[in-house]
Amino acid sequence: MSCCYTCILIEINRQLHKSKAGESLRRSGTDMIPKARMKTLKMTIIIVLSFVVCWTPYYLLGIWYWFQPEMLKVTPEYIHHLLFVFGNLNTCCDPVIYGFYTPSFRADLARCYRCRTPADSPRSLDRLSARQGEHESDPASVKGT
């Protein structure tokens, strides 16, 4: 996982140097590469940290058992199961972390927690499509009328 994210960061960095050398990668007239690099770096750190936080207790228990096998008789079995389930929770965390880096997901999540209407969500796709529909049906928004 770390290797894949390192490759992504290297590619973003390579694209950044290409754009400085004359080839431009631009979206809407603004340079998005430094922003994408920082976003990817933050997401990589969070994903790696979530992996470490979720799996470290289970592996520490395994290392402890390796050095003191008699501890298996002392430690309740439900502790082993809980730590294993906590480690597997990492699989559920990754899509949520990716989602938090998507503006529409964050806006819709905030709307769910606040029980707001879709029109209140600033970046919601529902609001964007509703705005577009309003402009198309509003005769005052058409130039020349």
TrEMBL record:
Residues 123-138 have a biased composition (Basic and acidic residues). PROSITE patterns: G_PROTEIN_RECEP_F1_2 (PS50262). Residues 120-145 are annotated as: Disordered. Residues 1-98 form the G-protein coupled receptors family 1 profile domain. The keyword Transmembrane applies. It is a multi-pass membrane protein. Keywords: Cell membrane, Membrane, Receptor, Transmembrane, Transmembrane helix. The chain crosses the membrane at residues 45-67, 79-101. It is found in: Cell membrane. It holds the Pfam family 7tm_1. It comes from the Eukaryota. Its main location: membrane. SUPFAM superfamilies: Family A G protein-coupled receptor-like. InterPro entries: GPCR_Rhodpsn (IPR000276), GPCR_Rhodpsn_7TM (IPR017452). PANTHER family: GONADOTROPIN RELEASING HORMONE RECEPTOR, NEUROPEPTIDE RECEPTOR-RELATED G-PROTEIN COUPLED RECEPTOR. This is G-protein coupled receptors family 1 profile domain-containing protein. It comes from Cirrhinus molitorella.
